[in-house]
Amino acid sequence: xxxxxxxxxxxxxxxxxxxxxxxxxxxxxxxxxxxxxxxxxxxxxxxxxxxxxxxxxxxxxxxxxxxxxxxxxxxxxxxxxxxxxxxxxxxxxxxxxxxxxxxxxxxxxxxx
Amino acid sequence: xxxxxxxxxxxxxxxxxxxxxxxxxxxxxxxxxxxxxxxxxxxxxxxxxxxxxxxxxxxxxxxxxxxxxxxxxxxxxxxxxxxxxxxxxxxxxxxxxxxxxxxxxxxxxxxxxxxxxxxxxxxxxxxxxxxxxxxxxxxxxxxxxxxxxxxxxxxxxxxxxxxxxxxxxxxxxxxxxxxxxxxxxxxxxxxxxxxxxxxxxxxxxxxxxxxxxxxxxxxxxxxxxxxxxxxxxxxxxxxxxxxxxxxxxxxxxxxxxxxxxxxxxxxxxxxxxxxxxxxxxxxxxxxxxxxxxxxxxxxxxxxxxxxxxxxxxxxxxxxxxxxxxxxxxxxxxxxxxxxxxxxxxxxxxxxxxxxxxxxxxxxxxxxxxxxxxxxxxxxxxxxxxxxxxxxxxxxxxxxxxxxxxxxxxxxxxxxxxxxxxxxxxxxxxxxxxxxxxxxxxxxxxxxxxxxxxxxxxxxxxxxxxxxxxxxxxxxxxxxxxxxxxxxxxxxxxxxxxxxxxxxxxxxxxxxxxxxxxxxxxxxxxxxxxxxxxxxxxxxxxxxxxxxxxxxxxxxxxxxxxx
Lengths: 112, 562
Hints:
B: mainly alpha, Sodium/glucose cotransporter, about 70% helix, globular, disordered N terminus
């Protein structure tokens, strides 16, 4: 975030300043190295939802099916969600998170 | 349009028969949302991590977040309302009103945005124009973001009150708390991750609803027969009755649809609304940033069916929907079908999807607001040159303030019966002038540093004058709010462009050296990065993805055009 007041008074902020500041921050950024893989969360949540809703579908009484125009909508939705969850977990297994590129500065790693 | 005078937003008899099972599903979701916030916390080290995810996310995540930030519940309920009110014209908001703009953003504008390494849309105006344009656009954006976040929060409270019976203040406090918690913890990463999760949950809610709704009215043929009988043939076509001078429910002709909605409003929204563009700026490289809106375009083409069909089904089942006698408003279309068709279980998923969508819509605005307020207002003009950690702390503080402020703005939304009209009105005030300044600045080297500010001001004022004076006072006759929005958008665009040209002719141009990478035909120094490995695969080519989306959207029009 270096400022050069004398060179900035003409109204326009220099593109190079922004460029340099962001490049510096990119170098120190920790997201790439530390963020967890979202596929695990989506996969996990949809497997749980899929199992719950499928079981509800299997045990649904006739009233629930009649309400849904004669379709066992819980069963079908549950199976579809389960499959989506398994898809994400399979994708994660087949193409695991790439190991992070070693950061330039391993020290100073307290999260802000 | 006959505006229902009934103040209630959703009819009280819409109370859903939720049970412990549905609440369990909802509870699991809230736990996961908070968990994402806590887990993302350790990835926040610099302000760039907090505000732009360190520019490091893969394209499929930023792409789904891009569509999801737009697919807020206001959009879901609002577009279903639109369909119940205006019919199949709703497809215009998607196929002409979104896809071309998203493709333009990805193919043409993204190299400038991403390559110049700006952290926000106003920062781009600072580089291209001057501080005056930067200040005005930052303030306008921050203001608009809080208004729109408030719309989401208010809508959530009303829907939750009607569907689940929670008092409004409980819903506002709970939703506000969760959004506040996960953004302050994990910053943009946790907002984006939750948006992607929300995308799948809302699909799991809308797909069963659409299928059952169609089954109830006897399939697509049964639906169109019924609606044609009730509302005439134009109701189920995209272009019927849109000749200039003829009347149609939308109150707009093909010219205002194409220019107002298709060009000005949608390009304004998709290409310069930072709540959207921010998702692309958080991508890990230029290729991923370009693909962000392009990946989003494909789901966007088909999502229209999941909101339009429930809206049409509601219009078919409740012929007087939107009028006093029916007890239902246009906005009730989707909640009404949930109540009629979904058994416990899927009902819980649907309630979760709606709540998730409201929270994501609010979070998208809050996370873009805190970025602009911290980087563009606070760090540039108020407290400059502090250490980076200070700005992360400030970003967390302003997130809390932003959430509190949107609680305040929530009540402004209550005076509009069709929330989508209200949103489009806000967009015509705030996004359209920003877009004209952008587009002139990007394609016309001669546009001077001073012209940005005056163009932005002229466009905003003109759009507001058109809406509040010419339309509201009845100086010119426009049959509907939406039609008025299209005209405001066109007027704001033309006024902004004219003022920019005039001001540019009387002021000094910016030196060519300062325009590198900011004007079409120049290259930014950041564009020299080598493409990442694997990005040259054919299915990752931006041009192929972009033109594919445009052609697919055009093909989708065919069955609705005759």
